[in-house]
Write a structure and sequence with these properties.
2 domains; 9% strand; mainly alpha; flat; 3 helices
């Protein structure tokens, strides 16, 4: 299952193991903007780290920029707190 993130120019997969490879390949082949592609597993961790503070709205809901900024700040503070505990 994927969701298009228009603000970031990419899509996001919610269940990377949710469908058989042929169904995933069909989604890749039929994507009108070529936003779906295979990613080497060894690069996945870096890609996930790059987007750790992204706030992804639920589909169909309007985006409130102040809420997005607050959530990003909240996630950063939570991460700092977790690092202090260890």
């Amino acid at each position: 299952t994927f969701y298009m993130e228009a603000d970031y120019g990419r899509s996001r997969v919610f269940r990377q193991d949710g469908d058989p490879e042929d169904v995933i390949q069909e989604a890749i082949d039929t994507c009108p903007v070529d936003c779906i592609h295979w990613v080497d597993y060894t690069k996945l961790k870096n890609l996930e780290d790059e987007r750790q503070y992204q706030v992804i709205p639920r589909a169909g809901l309007p985006i409130d920029r102040s809420i997005v900024a607050a959530k990003i700040k909240e996630r950063k503070l939570a991460r700092k707190r977790r690092k202090k505990r260890t």
